[in-house]
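Exercise 7b. Backbone tokens:
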């Protein structure tokens, strides 16, 4: 925020130098901001052991007022975008067909599906649960619904 204000006034200062200056000017405020940022981090380190271990599915509704909802699936190990779709409104069937079914037919069944809490992915979760005995590693849960922070 401070670097943006400075740039608007024609001054270009590196973020690291601004942070150092803020820590000298208001050390208590700087320390509390740093602690809040630490609390927002997930304490458990992320680990995907191989391609097909975890598939992350998320949606973006920032453009929904213009009739656009974007849903994307990413492999947790490689970071590769496996599939995505655009639709005017959330549609479980379209999400299942474009984001889950096609990649499963192309790459195989993922060991674990990770989604946000909500009902827009319920068909995918149901199918993942029904097919869970055909996964590579059946010791893991077939899916996890977590908040965005976790």
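Sequence design result:
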């Amino acid at each position: 925020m401070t670097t943006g204000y400075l740039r608007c006034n024609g001054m270009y200062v590196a973020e690291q130098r601004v942070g150092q200056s803020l820590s000298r000017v208001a050390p208590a405020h700087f320390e509390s901001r740093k602690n809040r940022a630490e609390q927002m981090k997930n304490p458990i380190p992320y680990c995907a052991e191989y391609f097909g271990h975890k598939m992350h599915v998320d949606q973006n509704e920032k453009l929904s007022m213009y009739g656009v909802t974007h849903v994307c699936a990413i492999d947790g190990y490689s970071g590769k975008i496996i599939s995505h779709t655009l639709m005017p409104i959330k549609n479980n069937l379209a999400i299942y067909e474009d984001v889950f079914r096609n990649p499963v037919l192309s790459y195989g069944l993922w060991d674990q599906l990770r989604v946000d809490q909500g009902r827009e992915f319920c068909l995918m979760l149901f199918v993942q649960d029904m097919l869970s005995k055909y996964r590579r590693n059946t010791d893991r849960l077939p899916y996890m619904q977590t908040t965005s922070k976790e």
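Instructor comment: The chain has a mean pLDDT of 86. Residues 92-107 form the longest helix (16 residues).
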